[in-house]
Amino acid sequence: MANRTPNIDASTDQLKSDLEHLTNTLEELVNATADDSRSNIKEMRQRAEQRLKDTRANLEARGERLYGNARDNVREQADACDKYVHANPWTSIGIGAGVGVVIGMLIGRR
């Protein structure tokens, strides 16, 4: 789990960089609009649209990657739990019964 933190930090840094580039491009577009030069506005608009498409694609890719990592992590944990229950059935039954008693007592106090 310690090796995942650098990946998250790198992803966060990349996201910040993408958003900064998008902001800069949009600021250039606003500044170009003030000149009212039609060719300049068209060029800046195309750059802004391309930057927006790139940023959106990057965000979607990161979201899919994070979802996949979370799904894999949950699957690994579920598999480990399943193996433990199969290896130690009586211990698992005892833990389940103990948790049931505690929950029953908590509900009974209401």
TrEMBL record:
Keyword annotations of the record: Cell inner membrane, Cell membrane, Coiled coil, Membrane, Transmembrane, Transmembrane helix
Cell inner membrane in keyword set: yes
Cellular component GO terms, alphabetical: plasma membrane
Start and end residues of each DUF883 domain: 13-59, 82-110
Alphabetized GO MF terms: ribosome binding
Membrane topology, from the record: Single-pass membrane protein
Top-level taxon of origin: Bacteria
InterPro entries: DUF883_C, DUF883_N, YqjD/ElaB
Coiled coil: 12-65
Family: Belongs to the ElaB/YgaM/YqjD family.
Classification via PANTHER family: INNER MEMBRANE PROTEIN (PTHR35893:SF3), INNER MEMBRANE PROTEIN-RELATED (PTHR35893)
UniProt-recorded name of the protein: Membrane-anchored ribosome-binding protein, inhibits growth in stationary phase, ElaB/YqjD/DUF883 family
Native organism: Onishia taeanensis
